[in-house]
């Protein structure tokens, strides 16, 4: 079928709106009519990354309606509303077997190669292959995706809001609920109030934490953090974060700290601001050239846990469906995360807004089809 898509032709260049061909879904694949797609910072990073295969169709936060299924697909049917996850999983590898489906390896090769799970592409133009992105490619009117990228949604779930569930919302919520396992009445610090951090605040709030401390350098983001459930804020450009966390917790430090900042100094502060027996979760991606420095003295004595979390340790089918229900129950804020609704043709303007360093990158531009 022919469809309209935003095509990445060259690294760093604006996307171009073109007509492209989408082949039918394979036996384990689903054809989805995309209704909405968030524009994430990771799309921007990939547009600037020379390792992104081109030409390709970016976009990895989407929701839509199933319009076709492959012969083996059992989990969804035509007419179902779905949110999309960019980490499909196999269900049988050593990681899936242990319930760690977010660590399943089947998605990673295809993710970097720009294909679907079978190593091939469904996208083309005049006989030339176009690459997929994150096994989804949601900057297009339709997408062919793996069955296990599809999360069935309740009929009453609006798809514009649902388009946000599969990436930053799931990752942040999961970092608090799955990785840190925040408990009711606990104290939680969140470093880095961006697309992931703001949702870690929501996760901590939903988990019943009584003290939620937002740590960032932007006063505007700290103010927003309060609207999402932070009870305290620390501007780490002005205050010593470790000392401030201890001051707020009777000298002990927080029970749970989540670093969503991607900054190793924040990671070090998060660890040092975590109390004995507590858990520090690193969910932001650090610069691979950096090292995370932690004081070695007394390491064994404090009994703390340091945990890396990929994709918020989510089980997409379970957690994205839970998030949709939390939204419908009025417990998860999504409307506020939608900064603007745009047409596909305006996608480059959404990318331009990422360059404006004064912008508050907590929310999203959402493409509505
Ligand atoms: Zn994303
Ligand atoms: Zn697996």
Describe the structure.
This is Zn-dependent alcohol dehydrogenase. Belongs to the zinc-containing alcohol dehydrogenase family. It holds the Pfam family ADH_zinc_N. Its cofactor is Zn(2+). This protein has 369 residues and is α/β, with parallel strands linked by helices. The protein folds into two domains: 2-164 and 334-368, Quinone Oxidoreductase, Chain A, domain 1 (Alpha-Beta Complex), CATH 3.90.180; 172-310, Rossmann fold (3-Layer(aba) Sandwich). The chain has twelve helices and 17 strands. Strand 11, helix 7 (219-227) and strand 12 form a beta-alpha-beta unit. The model has no long low-confidence stretch (mean pLDDT 95). It binds zinc ion (2 copies). One zinc ion binds next to helix 5.
The outline comes out as globular
Q: Major sheet, described briefly? A: 7 strands, mixed
Tell me the number of structural domains. 2
Mean pLDDT: 95
Structural class: alpha/beta
- Specify Rg, calculated over alpha carbons: 20 Å
Helices and strands, in order, run as: EEEHEEHHEEEEHHEHEHEHEHEHEHEHE
Bound molecules: zinc ion
**CATH level-two architecture of the largest domain:** Alpha-Beta Complex
Question: Looking at this structure, what is the CATH superfamily of the largest domain?
Answer: Medium-chain alcohol dehydrogenases, catalytic domain
Distance between the termini: 17 Å
Any low-confidence stretches, pLDDT <50, length ≥5? none
CATH topology of the largest domain: Quinone Oxidoreductase, Chain A, domain 1
How much of the sequence lies in strands comes to 25-35%
Question: How large is the count of helical segments?
Answer: 12
């Amino acid at each position: 079928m022919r469809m309209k898509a935003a095509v990445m032709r060259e690294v760093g260049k604006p996307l171009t709106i073109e007509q492209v061909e989408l082949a039918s879904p394979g036996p384990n694949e689903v054809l989805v009519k995309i209704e909405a797609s968030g524009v994430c910072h990771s799309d921007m990073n990939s547009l600037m990354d020379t390792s992104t295969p081109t030409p390709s169709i970016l976009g990895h936060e989407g929701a839509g309606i199933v319009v076709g299924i492959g012969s083996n697909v059992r989990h969804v049917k035509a007419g179902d509303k779905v949110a999309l996850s960019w980490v499909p999983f196999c269900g049988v590898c050593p990681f899936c077997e242990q319930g760690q489906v977010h660590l399943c390896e089947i998605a990673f090769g295809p993710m970097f190669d720009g294909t679907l799970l079978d190593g091939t592409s469904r996208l083309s133009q005049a006989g030339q292959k176009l690459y997929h992105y994150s096994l989804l490619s949601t900057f297009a009117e339709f997408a062919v995706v793996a069955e296990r990228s599809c999360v069935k949604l309740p009929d009453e779930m609006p798809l514009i809001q649902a388009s946000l569930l599969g990436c930053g919302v799931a990752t942040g919520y999961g970092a608090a609920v799955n990785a840190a396992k925040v408990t009711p009445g606990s104290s939680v610090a969140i470093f880095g109030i961006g697309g992931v951090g703001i949702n870690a605040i929501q996760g901590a709030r939903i988990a019943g934490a009584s003290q939620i401390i937002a740590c960032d350098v932007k006063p505007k983001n700290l103010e927003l953090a309060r609207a999402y459930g932070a009870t305290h804020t620390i501007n780490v450009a002005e205050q010593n974060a470790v000392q401030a966390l201890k001051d707020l917790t009777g000298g002990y430090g927080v029970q749970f700290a989540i670093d969503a900042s991607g900054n190793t100094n924040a990671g070090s502060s998060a660890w040092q601001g975590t109390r004995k027996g507590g858990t520090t979760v690193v969910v932001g991606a650090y610069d691979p050239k950096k090292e995370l420095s932690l004081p070695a003295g007394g390491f064994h004595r404090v009994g703390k846990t340091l945990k890396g979390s990929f994709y918020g340790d989510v089980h997409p089918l379970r957690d994205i469906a839970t998030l949709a229900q939390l939204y419908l129950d009025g417990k998860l804020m999504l409307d506020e995360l939608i900064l603007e609704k745009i047409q596909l043709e305006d996608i480059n303007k959404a990318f331009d807004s990422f360059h404006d360093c004064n912008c508050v990158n907590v929310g999203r531009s959402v493409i509505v089809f």
